[in-house]
Amino acid sequence: MNNNKTSNNFYALGKRGAWVGIIGNVFLSFIKILAGILGKSYSLVSDGLHSLSDITSSLAVLFGMIVAAKPKDKRHPYGHGKAESITSLTMAVMLIIFGLMLGYKVIFSYFRSAIFIEPASYTLWIAVFSVVAKETMYRYKICLGKRIKSTSLIADAWHHRSDAFSSAVVVIALVLTIYGGERWAFMDRLGALIVSVMILYIGIKIYLRASSELMDESVDLEIKREVKKLASTIKEVKYIETLLVRKAGLDFLVDIHIEVDANLNVLESHGIAKLVKSKILQEMPRVKSVLVHVEPYEAKGGKK
Cα torsion for 128, 205, 23, 16, to the nearest 10°? Predict the structure, then answer.
């Protein structure tokens, strides 16, 4: 069986995706913060700080992937896959805190009188470049995250998408501020406030999803249907009474109760259970563990 090899390959892809985010965000946050400070744009500086938070989240994803990829041991008989979900939860909390802090600073700044200073025109082009770059990073990570079914990578992808949206808001704010003059000066800070609300919303959404995984919420029906279909190919299996599938990192853990002929002895029943386990592990590389419970099949009414 190549389940461990497949799992390791998926974790390797996940770590590569995290590195793409780290390198990309280091570059973007640097140019946006620098251009925002030199070009006198409050919203661009805020957007740069958002990208800076993306670096932290990508580092968290990388750390989570490294820990989750570790093999099981005596203290962790089910492996370390939950580290990936814990990473997602950590990222969500970071986003929520950052969104609240940014919103507070922007709202507080409205009560301070300030002389209008028109942002430099190049800040607009930096913001446009950021939209394109962050949307590209989002599309790369969302495809990779869905492919390897990584909650933390998908969360990180949405972090990039939120940055792309926030940069788009900054573009609009800068266009109005630069070309509309002092009458539209409030748009620069309004853009920063909208960014903070978006960050907060995405943080809450990711938090709820990660919490569900840590509480062993049942996986999507497609995975369960595939497991049930494979188990049913074993002709000795009369009926599948219970099927539970939960996610642990990038892997799935299966608990299945099958019913077999009540006249079979323990050895024969055990042999059928081994066939079911082997079939699922061979056909579904993402499944790392299968626990098969055998019960007698009663023909009354066709089921127990």
Answer: -130
127/85 Cα distance (integer angstroms): 32
What does pTM read for this prediction?
A: 0.57
pLDDT in tens, the chain (304 residues): 455 555 667 777 777 887 887 888 888 888 888 888 888 776 777 777 767 767 766 777 777 777 766 777 777 766 666 776 777 787 778 778 877 877 777 677 665 555 556 677 788 888 888 889 888 988 988 888 888 777 777 777 877 777 787 788 778 877 877 777 667 766 666 766 777 787 788 778 878 877 776 776 666 677 888 888 999 898 889 988 888 888 776 678 889 999 999 888 899 999 999 999 999 988 887 787 888 999 998 764 444 4
β-strands 287-297, 251-261: how paired? parallel
Q: What superfamily in CATH does domain 3-214 come from?
A: Cation efflux protein transmembrane domain (1.20.1510.10)
Considering the domain delimited by 221-302, tell me its CATH architecture: 2-Layer Sandwich (3.30)
